[in-house]
């Protein structure tokens, strides 16, 4: 990156302090981010980084050029303004655009610190990170792949177009990996030869072909290569269980079609190198795709705490920041930033509420039945408010904080208070003392900050207690021992643990991915308050319509959207289909059919990696014209018939066939149903 | 370095995979393009993937105001089903290869073997060229310092002379002021008599002797033999420039040269029959022929103006957006349109504008309108090209004779083209037929092989 330029240098200098302080604040808030290296880049470099998915060096490919053009175009229309790019690495690298306002830069920095915390602590990122001794080392790894592939393309004995075609093919399948396991564990066979001297990753068909080529007499052939031996060989390529890691299977058992010889031939070593490189990158990006909602929501949540709550945006910058936030959260559609942000806040609120309810239910005389009448919620909100000196920490409350510090109050950073006092008395150079005017949080500990930002004392969330239903209360009371422990409400509230919500967030951040996150935390209340709904395509009306506002339906639809990257699950069913060494893939049908145009095109890419005919089994719903017409008349949806289909590509043309019943049964859904259409449209 | 390489490659890949131009014109979706950007579909540039059918999958949305009612129609949410969709990012319209009209025109030349060479017509401006003209007066800033200096120097050289040398003349035996002056003049020394008088007086005071008494040299010849006159440049080299006399009359001010620019400008009048017999299929064929021609001419000319006329028995002018869609009832009188064409073209004098008049219809016209009115008007309206495009899917009817009559009457004129389009497959031929006909065009263009 060019850093000799004056503008970038100047900008970098002004950002050094915000970056340092944001890190200190993040750590005080309990985050443990990877170190972050910040780079100041200009507008063109930013677009370039976006095109390369956040990295400076990637392998040569037209797709990056396409990304760039696209970014450039949306840029021209004032859309898609890039605020942050950060990549998951240890240390993480983050890029700041030099022309952004300081408020934007600060927002990006706080956002990035939270991302870096997520990278470092989320288990799904760990899948990738744990694979090397030196951590993810992503930038270096991707750059190395870039060099490797560029070197292959430059070779005189390799046709550049062939390399590109191979990259295209593997990239097309980059989501058909086993993203729930680390890249190496997902591979079927670590050892390329198994002692027979013959590469084990040869399909049975090839072995038969080779035997045929040997031109042995029938008797010898039977003697040496009996069926038992062949069966033993077959174990490797044979698919006893459907395999989800299609790409690994193709890598290990696939071939290359040689148009001149008209048959499949073994791959050149460079081809395997290319496949491995792209597959490795697919695993790197899988971590991000699996946690998009959580990760963006996490970053947005902490950004709002730091920028808004802790005044990291100066008073003059706050409006710019608020505007930025409104734009991020306000963009239409299902927005991962917003969904994630709301879910995290929801978890925080529920955790706090549960804690408060649990304590209140232990107050003498308070039961689920008497809760709403006995408890004065206004009063409770008041008593949950943070200590005034904590809430207003800063130069004005320094004496009050000093009193607390003397009493060993865990919420106060006694050391910092001490130093601030000596600055005030002139015993300490202000340049070395904590700048409590601008960074008042330096006076507080994690406990202090947790109280300062306690969710139920924030005005927009205090209604959460009022909204609690009797059913919820009863649910809590049922599992409660030790009832009647507190004599008064005040005593109960004094025990409320204000760090509980954040500690809970940290736990969730460690173990979940988007699917489990949504599955566990998307509640009725959340769907209702967020006005979420599902929509479905109406065949009768030839339009999309709102289908359901039911929380279960919304959740199911969202899960469809996030399970397996929101893509259909494709597995290897048979590597020797029809006993001809052909590949049979199966779409695990869950009631949602494939996009057939794309499927056929993707199947052609599979052929590139298999070298022999390829098939894909799926199920689709067919409607007779008559049924559609009748349904339209009655304002209902037509009933279709589910039919098994096998798409085939043999290297020349795409064909469709009826699917064998046994295979159809194998791929059909168990019990999931993603259809949220009502029986009858109300409209 | 990397991004330049990858963008170039994307361009190449896009070019390979975009729809063939002739195919695009005949069958492609012209609607995605605007007058400035022509968007040609690229066959599947983004990599295919195994994905759900959008309609089967449905989705989740968020109501802006309250929870919506089931059954209410919604647009699929932007960014939905696209996991890279960052907020504010534009949705995924990327399967187009975009070209500007210039590139389109060049490509069409290539694809159809056209070779239209637009003529510059109107003098649009007298632009300021380089500062190559000079004048004696002007703002100080434009003073040509080089010239000023050179002139000063020239003057200096012209008036400068070796004073010591001339003074020596006074030392010649018996030579007086007049003798010295005559001698100096024959030597082309630019000295005045007054100067010699002064010099003589000086010497007389200095030496206290009349100059006639001084005789260091026997004659002027001897003087010339013994002494060399010092050339001016040597003296300047020795004494420097301080003595160069700068004068007001040496000042020269530079000002720009005025260049006449002739703009290659064109006005295109598109005329279309909107009468009842012009059904959807015919209208679409008109659009297929006219739209690429508009793009082509936009790309070829510096400035292109388009006017749109529709007619039935009467003619009226419309905007481009309305032009291809309008359908009216009534009969057909094509001359009504040409009357309006003539009126509109008054704004575009032929001396200053290239003019194209493209008319299209199904060749039906009322009575003897074609022979009595249209043909004479086509002859009288000056234009680079008059074209008539007959769109008649399934062949023309017995009453549809306009194209035939025009062809019979004016087919030999080198600025009239008649093309017949029965279906999309005829579109590119029609475009070729029209655009390869132009007044005088044949004279300048080499015949070329047509590559479809």
UniProtKB/TrEMBL annotation, chain A:
State the InterPro entries in the record. Spore_V_R, SpoVR-like_C, SpoVR_N
Q: Start and end of every SpoVR-like C-terminal domain? A: 568-619
Name listed for the protein in its UniProt record = Stage V sporulation protein R
Q: Which residues form the SpoVR protein-like N-terminal domain?
A: 12-354, 500-564
The record lists the organism as: Halorubrum vacuolatum
Q: Which domain of life is it from?
A: Archaea
Question: What Pfam families has UniProt attached to this entry?
Answer: SpoVR, SpoVR_C
TrEMBL record, chain B:
Q: Region Disordered: what ranges?
A: 55-94
Question: Cross-referenced InterPro entries, in alphabetical order?
Answer: UPF0229
Bias-annotated ranges (Acidic residues): 80-90
Identification of the protein by name = Uncharacterized protein
